[in-house]
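Hi R.,

Here's the chain you asked about this morning:
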Amino acid sequence: MINDTRFQLLQEWIQNTLKWQGARIEVASADASFRRYFRVFHQGKSFIAMDAPPEKEDTQPFIDITKRLLQSGVHAPEIIAEETTLGFLMLEDLGSTPYQEVLNNNTADGFYKEALQALITLQKADVTKLPHYDKTLFLQEMSFMPEWFLKTHLGISLTHSQQDIIQQCFDSLTTAIAEQPTGFVHRDYHSRNLMQVPENNPGIIDYQDAVNGPLTYDVVSLLRDCYIVWPQHQVREWALWYKHQAVSAQLMNDIDNTEFLRQFDLMGLQRHIKVLGIFARLKHRDGKSHYLDDLPLTLSYMLEVGKKHPETAPLIELFKQLKITGQISTVAIPA
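And here is the predicted structure, written out as tokens:
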């Protein structure tokens, strides 16, 4: 039984303001923030109630981005009702089947191409007044890795020269990815945030941190997903399929496949460096230890891809010197 003040407020809002007498409420999920989600059953239909404590979470970005996505034509949840002063939203229920649960060798090609096609539609969404995903933000995000992953999680104290190696790699990586073509970026487009739905698949959730940034960001977030791994040749094939569709949609100019895959790799490195820090922070600051289960794959992406590029090769060599893989296991990524 759920028994807390926020839940009682939610019940009162549903029953007294929405007048949904007799509605049944059960826990749906929580995420990496302070938000919680409940499934609400009323008159034979189900809905999702978002509980976002106003002192910790602002619902306005979610509302704003939802409107942009719905206008673009992708399947974001419709907002049924809102009470922003309390931090409550009632949303369309996109079901309880994330891509992660239905992806396998037989289904992956179809599901990923649907997701990539939806991504192209999403990338055309209105970016007016969205934050810019720029050098400052790239560097800020990557700084989570030395602070939370190396120092807090692994207890590693870096020398000044080691700090310089990391900073030089971050600067080189940031300069390279800042030159990429830009558009609407979901910022967490992966198998846990895409829902299998009967129409206009996939349903898209958890997009409130959207920005105007490099187009490859969501592509690599999807294809080098921190929660599921695919053979490298398959990832390249899907990435180039996306590139062809994006060029046809006039999102980007046609470029050499090798150069596009380089851009894809470098953007992925920024993401995975950042995520190493975020997963460690979720454990040590927020008490969400289950995210540590996903460190091995995230680290493996960084090591495997990073050694191929001059921007990050010194960082990979430093990780070898620090014997990181002696403390964190890795995952074999099939060729």
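One quick note: The chain has two domains: 5-92, 99-326.

Cheers,
M.
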